[in-house]
Write a structure and sequence with these properties.
- The structure holds two protein chains of two kinds.
- By secondary structure, chain A is an all-alpha fold.
- Chain A contains 17 helices and four strands.
- In chain A, the strands form two sheets. Chain A has a two-stranded antiparallel ribbon with strand order 1-2. In chain A, strands 3-4 form a two-stranded antiparallel sheet.
- The longest helix of chain A has 37 residues, at 94-130.
- The radius of gyration of chain A is 25 Å and the shape is globular.
- Chain A starts with a helix and ends in a 14-residue tail after the last strand.
- Chain B is an all-alpha fold.
- Chain B has helices at 2-5, 23-51, 59-62, 78-102, 106-136, 157-188, 191-195, 199-224.
- Classes of the chains: A mainly alpha, B mainly alpha.
- The interface between A and B is large, with 72 and 53 residues.
Chain lengths: 603, 225
């Protein structure tokens, strides 16, 4: 039997099965509908809500360690009630402080902004926007979530072991991470951390393979690659980055597991460590781990950022009532970013003793990323230019994303220069840079996506007033938290210190640190307001009554108000045009499903 | 804008697979690419450490025995060549199984799958013997009894990497054997006859050939260089 015949029978079979399904409405139990669901929309919600759980926990951790940084000399008895021995006398211990910082980083980077962001929106939007019944393999898709869930359980359990969770920084550099004797957090906590991360890699791989296969293979008739909404292009490159970079991290972790448990010397050499003494190991290289880690670590920041970029492009265009400016340039710059992401990892390692000549090559490649980034920024701005902008909360967050991406991106040019990096490395300047450009910006992309697609997810709207409060407090707060950190970093204030009171040069920042901590708490409180809005609106929000409330062109708005498993009753619509025909020939918007008319002008 | 005016080429215009493969095969290809990066990271790490180390044991002096041979046998790389030969032959039988699947020849599929499984098991047994033999010579993770080629004392990273990477590869072979056994059971219970195609065999075949290909690199890195 020829390959072609197989492909075609397969597709027909899928359509028949799903068509059937819709007419008869098979009975679904609670378990198959809400727990072990294979419907991409439900899996997306599972990723989203698990991600939210971690965002709250990770955010709460940052509030706790900001409390230490803002009030290093105060005692808070309630902290003792909350953390027990980790906060004797109401004062967070150094071990607990480092555990909080480490877990905050790990959780936010991987569980919230990778699983919570691309897990949610790749699952939700890919089948809906390319015109597919579901993911290529709904079963593997379900497994992807449950691997993530298991990883979450293991990570959560590591918070409760006697020696505490891992506390050596989210990058888990050896020798600290390789030697159980080096710190309490490097004992059981680190083993659980590694197991959790390994499970997470599996989850990410299963998800990524599905996203790629769905985008390439399951597009509806007429949906050529250049008619895809930019969200899909962004999620496609995100998936490719994940599939190619996470395995390298996985290899690095396996070697680390061997170093920890089986007496090998991959990362350990004959060094002397206080409290441990001289190591018997020989011939290993701690720098090797950093190469393996950052070969994932750098693409990882684009895994976090690209989905936000894609959603922002879509939301900006819809709410400016204008076509996205420079569609092909947007796709090309996404591609350029995806390629460059693999070629810049050593800019995290300028101060490791890297050969300066090699460093200069990495400087060049790093600064090259400014080109596609600038293309994207200018295209967003020109999309907004003279648009009839509708300031919905989703749109506000999308514009906020652009603002943050510019502010945080510009400091990336500073840090990408190896000569400047010698001064700025491991200071608060770095913290400010990556929190703005990757952390907060991607959170804004995620919020934009949630506000924009919430009606499609739950058939109801989020409350707009709460949305505007959420937006303004968050963006003002984000700048008030991270902008001053640039000054602290330029003054040489190192990151990851427990208490700066010993240094005369940093005493000038006591008040500033207190200010940052206060704003951080206010911003955290506003996120709780958002959570209230989210869960309240699922049940009590204003009901969606129109199929296409934003007047958008993409396919998800052609589905019923509450689409069942299979998304479209009857045939999947055919696509006749790209996703950005806004304000064309006097029509406000023309859905992708509308055939190109005889009297219609061509671009 | 290109999107509304240009008629897209047929392959990519949606409604069908641009590569004319069903999604499972596409996913298998991407998985193999991902897995290639896992092995790539291991082998590059190995290379980095080896080139930053002063000396390294001579594989001809380490891998010179075979089962039931005396203490003083000197047959460098003979046993591992047999292992490699077995694995490559098992790839040939896998090709034959896939080919038989294309022709809907159930008997041919069963016969060749059994041969492939046997080949895989034989390779794993050889590896088990070799590991046991090295273990009895004092080699293990963290222990390296073999001196460098210039007879100076060697670091343990020779054995560390050897056991980790060949072990990881062996684990892949083991998974491949399990997958092939599942394929065999599915063939025997007429699952593929009912579906009308043996596409699953093809996907298992892709994995099996990949594992073989990786062995060529592992073999080169540890036994030849």
């Amino acid at each position: 039997m020829s390959n072609e015949a197989v492909v075609h029978t397969h597709h027909d079979a899928v359509h028949e099965v799903h068509g059937d399904h819709h007419e008869h409405h098979h009975h679904e139990t609670f378990i198959t509908k809400y727990v072990f669901s294979q419907d991409h929309k439900m899996i997306a919600k599972q990723f989203l809500i698990t991600g939210m759980f971690w965002a709250v926990l990770g955010g709460l951790m940052s509030v706790l360690f900001r409390l230490q940084l803002g009030y290093p000399d105060s005692n808070f008895p309630w902290l003792h009630s909350l953390l027990g021995k980790w906060a004797e006398n109401g004062h967070i211990t150094p071990d607990a402080y480092y555990a909080l910082v480490t877990t905050h980083g790990t959780v936010l980077v991987f569980f919230v902004l990778t699983a919570g962001l691309s897990g949610t929106f790749a699952n939700f939007l890919i089948p809906l926007q390319v015109g597919a019944r579901d993911m290529a393999s709904p079963f593997l898709n379900m497994l992807s979530y449950w691997f993530f869930f298991t990883a979450s359980v293991v990570m959560l359990s590591s918070l409760f072991v006697e020696t505490g969770p891992f506390s050596g920084g989210w990058t888990a550099y050896p020798p600290l991470s390789a030697l159980g004797d080096a710190s309490p957090g490097s004992k059981t906590g680190m083993d659980l951390w590694l197991i959790s991360m390994a499970l997470f890699v599996v989850s990410s791989l299963l998800g990524g393979l599905n996203y790629i296969a769905t985008i390439l293979n399951m597009r509806t008739k007429g949906m050529s690659m250049t008619r895809l909404p930019l969200t899909i292009w962004a999620l496609f490159f995100t998936a490719v980055l994940g599939v190619l970079s996470f395995p390298v991290l996985f290899s690095g972790f396996i070697l680390l597991i061997f170093d920890r448990n089986f007496g090998t010397s991959f990362y350990l050499s004959d060094i002397f460590i206080s409290k441990v003494g001289a190591l018997p190991n020989e011939g290993g290289s701690a720098i090797l781990y950093q190469h393996l880690f950052w070969f994932l670590g750098h693409p990882e920041v684009y895994i976090i950022l690209l989905p936000a970029m894609g959603m922002v492009s879509e939301i900006l265009s819809v709410n400016s009532r204008k076509p996205i400016f420079g569609y092909m340039a947007m796709v090309g710059s996404l591609f350029a970013i995806a390629v460059l992401a693999f070629l810049v990892w050593a800019h995290h390692m300028f101060v490791t003793g890297l050969n300066p000549f090699l460093g200069s090559i990495f400087v060049l490649l790093t600064l090259l990323i400014a080109v596609p980034s600038a293309i994207k920024v200018f295209n967003w701005l020109t999309t907004l230019w003279r648009g009839s902008i509708r300031f919905t909360p989703g749109m506000m967050f999308a514009i906020g994303f652009v603002s943050l991406f510019i502010s945080g991106g510009l400091t990336g040019i500073w840090l990408g220069n190896s000569a400047l990096d010698i001064h700025l490395h491991d200071t608060y300047f770095v913290i400010a840079h990556f929190h703005i450009v990757m952390g907060v910006a991607s959170m804004f992309g995620m919020f934009a996506g949630i506000y924009h697609w919430f009606p499609k997810m739950y058939g109801r709207y989020l409350n707009n007033t709460l949305g505007y409060i959420h937006f303004w407090v968050t963006i003002a707060g984000a700048y008030m938290i991270f902008w001053p950190m640039h000054y602290e970093g330029l003054a040489g204030m190192p990151r990851r210190y427990y208490d700066y009171g010993n240094w005369e040069s940093f005493k000038q920042f006591i008040e500033l640190n207190r200010f940052i901590s206060t704003v951080a708490m206010i911003v955290f409180a506003v996120q709780i307001l958002f959570l209230f809005n989210f869960f309240y609106s699922i049940f009590k929000g204003r009901k969606m009554t129109q199929l296409n409330p934003y007047g958008a062109n993409t396919l998800e708005w052609t589905t019923p108000l509450r689409p069942g498993h299979g998304n479209w009753p009857g045939e999947i619509p055919e696509v006749h045009r790209w996703a950005y025909d806004y304000g064309k020939d006097g029509k406000e918007f023309i859905s992708q499903t509308a055939p190109v008319g005889a009297d219609e002008s061509h671009h | 804008m290109a999107s509304t005016t240009v008629t897209p080429t047929k392959m990519w215009s949606g409604g069908k697979s641009p590569f004319n493969v069903e999604y499972g095969k596409l996913m298998m290809w991407y998985f193999l690419m991902s897995d290639a990066f896992t092995f790539g990271a291991f082998l590059i790490s190995y290379g980095t450490i080896r080139f930053s180390t002063n000396g390294w044991p001579d594989p001809n002096k380490v891998f010179k025995s075979y089962p039931f041979a005396g203490e003083s046998t000197n047959a460098p790389l003979v046993f591992v060549s047999i292992m490699t030969f077995i694995l490559i032959i098992s790839s040939v039988t896998m090709v034959l199984a896939v080919h038989a699947g294309h022709k809907m020849d159930k008997r041919g599929v069963v016969k060749n799958l059994i041969l492939t499984i046997l080949g895989g098991l034989a390779f794993l047994s050889c590896q088990a013997w070799e590991w046991t033999h090295l273990y009895h010579e004092g080699a293990w993770w963290g222990h390296n009894p073999f001196p460098n080629a210039d007879m100076t004392a060697s670091s343990t990273n020779f054995t560390n990497y050897f056991f980790t990477i060949t072990g990881f590869h062996g684990f892949h072979v083991f998974s491949g054997v399990i997958i092939n056994i599942i394929m065999l059971i599915m063939t025997l219970t007429d699952k593929f006859e009912k579906r009308g195609h043996y596409l699953m065999i093809e996907k298992a075949g892709l994995y099996w050939h990949f594992v073989d290909l990786v062995w060529v690199f592992v073999f080169t890195c540890f036994y030849l260089i």
